[in-house]
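Final report, results section. Input specification for complex C-07:
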Amino acid sequence: MTSNVAQPGIDTKRGWLGALENAASQMGRLEISLLLTLLLLVFYPPRYVYISLPLSVIAIAAIVLPTLRHNRYVWLFAAFLVGAVSLSNWHSTDNHKYLLCYWCLAIFCSFSTKDPEQSLAQIARWLIAAVFSIAVLQKFLSSDYLNSDFFYFELLFDKRFSGLAQYVGGIQEFINDLNTSARHALVNYDSALIAVKLSSNSSLLYLAKFITWWNFLIQVMIAVSFLAPTQTWLAKWRHPMLLVFLFCTYLFAPVIGFGWVLIILGIAQLDPAATRTRLLYLLAFILLQIYKYPWSSLMPS
Amino acid sequence: MSKTGISRDTFLILVVPVLLCVVAAVQLYLVDSRSLSRWKGGGFGMFTTVDSPSARFLRVYLISETGEVPVLIPRKLRKLSHKVRVMPSKERLMKLSEKLREGTWVHLTMVSATQHYQNLLRAAGKEFQDSADNIQYQIQDSTPYIDFEQLQLVRMLGEDEPLTTDKQLKVTGVRVEVWKYLFDREELVLRASKITHIASGENSSDV
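Structure output:
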């Protein structure tokens, strides 16, 4: 027998959390996947105006008109636009633009099947499995990833990691300036230099090793869990691992477009009863936008 | 169910993941055989290696009667030069080299903003003469802070840009080198390594 009297504190929290879960579960996973993808096309289209303009117009129209977003040829057209511009600018196209093209194509394919929602869920699973398996393979094949050289270099030079390098790795600002000048001296058009010496801090290596293995192992676990058959215990770790990856990775490498695609792939294959997990994905969708703010600039130098 | 045993729905479910894998396989092949940067090409190799497109750079030299002159890539050739850096094929390198050699190169004459303004006023006609004289009056006792005479720069004229009074550089050849830097963590050194190069009139390349 449950009490009908609201208990201050506990029931209030349960109440608003429950209300949020109810709100998040009102839409089917297919519908929410389509809407989030359309938001992605509006906010993070390919940067060429001759593509981003028609894409955003179609996406806005499809957000407003359900008939349009359920028309498979709209998604085929979107896939064509994104794919064409990605291929013609292959030298500058980032990987998540390819993934966006595949995802629009996946929506087109799923609408051509008997059960679009179920088909899209399966495609989303295999896309995540493929992306992370290939990413893990790339790390194995790279000559400077598993030995931590890559992240050591990133901590020295990538501005997105400067906060981490400064406050955890102990790299002072003048060392940053020195290294940046060294690199500039090497690559400048009139340079005849073959090598430049850099400066660092002994504790940076431990930080680089930690980030390297954290990043590598979590991607291995995501790949394995999505490859494993759905009934196995490994598969139960799919969404927790992917969510951890999303919350941690994009704080330092805010490639929001990529993060959003992964979130949509996650939501598209989620069990409709997993409302709390869906809520976490939606929270990640919003949080990744907040991650764009240069938080490290607020810290004292 | 089709004769091959795969249903239409199963095919539609698998075709996109398979396409992803095929593109990634092609990318891996190009990384290995054509020096494609692992960061590009749809192989999901970003954040796996120091060898990103920004770790690759060009050294371009115009060969003239007075010797070799290092030059910046002109703005209109930046897209092509970026492609050369990301995947330095012989054909692309040759195309860049030819476009550089065919261009009209002039010594860059730099003047201060004040001098440039005065030159424009004088060229604009009699009605602007008073303004030009006024500028001259203001600067007659001042010493310029920057001595542009010491700068020796060359630039390539744009396609529709008319010949200027700047001295033209007679270019007999071009050498384009594609480099990348490698990070030696033990010695804390960035070490440049030449990927390939091409000289005008030659088809030589070292990988």
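Chain A touches chain B through 61 residues (CB under 8 Å). Chain A has 14 helices and one strand. This concludes the modelling results for the funded period.
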